[in-house]
């Protein structure tokens, strides 16, 4: 019982540290020390009567220690400037429309595209963006679209950039239609719905930002399903009606 209580306390400490400690190096040291202590605790005391349970526990704690050591290695890895998130963005400056995207930087997910584009946010004053930074962000977006053409989040990101940053509403909503065909998730469909609602309100002269909450989206989806069901039943009724008309005799 004492070993399990100490182990529970160590796990509680690791959970609290991952939530409260924001410095990567301090967090890596704490997690590695706690994982090593937890592994030594089970190796030294062997608290369970059955060897299989002890082996499973030791293997689990070893995997946790392995992850903690990887975090420690990443935190203290030399040659990586973690305080310069925009270090990759300048590699896109010399690109032309005919350049291939792969030599600049290989993007593996939509999160990298968003982080790189956000690093280009530069203001001349409180209301004016730097045009060169905007052009660089657009280049990064296009590289992301070229390398991840079927990712709906990247398409949404580019559509939002065209609408909010470049004020190109028609181009942005045209790109938004591509996101519908890219098999978006539930949250991505909600984002598309919000953008379309804003476009509808802007076209109608209403104040943007109204009726774009999740409740409205769920209600609209429910009404759409009901409308499709009624429409299908109406088509079936019309089909049966015309099928009856071509019959010579009706029962």
UniProtKB/TrEMBL annotation:
UniProt keyword Transmembrane, yes or no: yes
Keywords: Membrane, Transmembrane, Transmembrane helix
Pfam families xref list: TPR_TmcB (PF25474)
Residue ranges crossing the lipid bilayer per the database entry: 20-43, 63-80
Domain TmcB/TmcC TPR repeats, first and last residues per copy: 206-247
Membrane as UniProt keyword: yes
Signal sequence segment: none
InterPro entries registered for this protein in UniProt: Tiny_macrocysts_regulators, TPR_TmcB/C
Origin superkingdom: Eukaryota
Name of this chain's protein: Tiny macrocysts protein B
Source organism of the structure: Haematococcus lacustris (Green alga)
């Amino acid at each position: 019982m004492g070993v399990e209580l100490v182990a529970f306390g160590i796990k509680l400490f690791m959970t609290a540290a991952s939530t409260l400690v924001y410095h990567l190096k301090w967090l890596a040291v704490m997690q590695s020390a706690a994982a090593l202590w937890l592994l030594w605790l089970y190796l030294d005391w062997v608290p369970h009567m059955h060897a299989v349970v002890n082996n499973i526990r030791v293997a689990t704690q070893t995997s946790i220690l392995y992850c903690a050591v990887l975090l420690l290695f990443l935190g203290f890895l030399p040659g990586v400037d973690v305080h310069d998130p925009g270090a990759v963005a300048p590699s896109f400056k010399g690109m032309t429309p005919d350049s291939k995207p792969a030599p600049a930087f290989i993007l593996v997910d939509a999160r990298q595209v968003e982080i790189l584009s956000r690093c280009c946010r530069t203001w001349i004053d409180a209301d004016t963006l730097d045009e060169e930074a905007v052009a660089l962000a657009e280049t990064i977006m296009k590289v992301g679209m070229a390398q991840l053409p079927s990712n709906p989040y990247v398409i949404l990101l580019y559509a939002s950039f065209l609408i909010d940053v470049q004020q190109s509403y028609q181009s942005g909503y045209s790109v938004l239609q591509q996101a519908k065909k890219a098999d978006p998730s539930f949250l991505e469909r909600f984002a598309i719905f919000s953008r379309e609602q804003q476009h509808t309100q802007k076209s109608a002269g209403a104040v943007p930002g109204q009726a774009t909450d999740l409740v409205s989206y769920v209600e609209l989806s429910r009404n759409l399903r009901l409308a499709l069901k009624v429409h299908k039943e109406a088509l079936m009724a019309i089909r049966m009606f015309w099928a009856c008309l071509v019959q010579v005799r009706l029962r």
